Amino acid sequence: MKTLQDKRKRFSFFIASSITSVIWILWHIPFFFVAGTGQSEMSFLLFSIMVLGNSFALSAIYRISASVWLCILFHAVFNAFSFYWPAGQDITTTIISTVCLVIISNIIVLLRDGKRLKQHK
After folding, report:
1. Domain named CAAX prenyl protease 2/Lysostaphin resistance protein A-like: which ranges (predicted)?
2. Contact at 8 Å (CB) between 106 and 14?
3. pLDDT of 55-105, one tens digit each?
4. Helix boundaries (H) for 2-121
5. DSSP state of 87
6. Would you say the pTM of this structure is higher than 0.85?
7. What is the span of the domain harbouring residue 47?
8. CB under 8 A, 24+ apart: contacts of 85-88
9. How many domains in the chain?
10. What's the rounded Cα separation, in Å, for the pair 29 and 48?
11. Which residues pair with 90 in a beta bridge?
């Protein structure tokens, strides 16, 4: 995740996470054309909205822990439970879930960065 570290130096958490989400959306496009994948049965719009929320959550996890393994674990757990979670099935649930992930991720990072600033003073 060297690219995320580089973006952290140049961009805010919000901008870096947004850029990452666009890259992830582009990365997953081929799966929409492969039968049997979760993406092939989903709306591209709903998937893109979900990726946006997950991008913020994963960026926050990495920013706080500096652990790629925790990000991999989060991604695996999300994928495993996505069959049971209604997000991605309708626009309202997907938007609400994404907004919650973005807000919570930003709050966690702001609180964490604030604590670090106080420790350095």
Report:
1. 9-81
2. yes
3. 999 999 998 888 999 999 988 988 887 777 665 577 888 888 889 888 998
4. 2-10, 13-28, 44-65, 68-81, 91-120
5. B
6. no
7. 2-120
8. 87/50, 88/42, 88/43, 88/46, 88/47, 88/50
9. 1
10. 10
11. 87
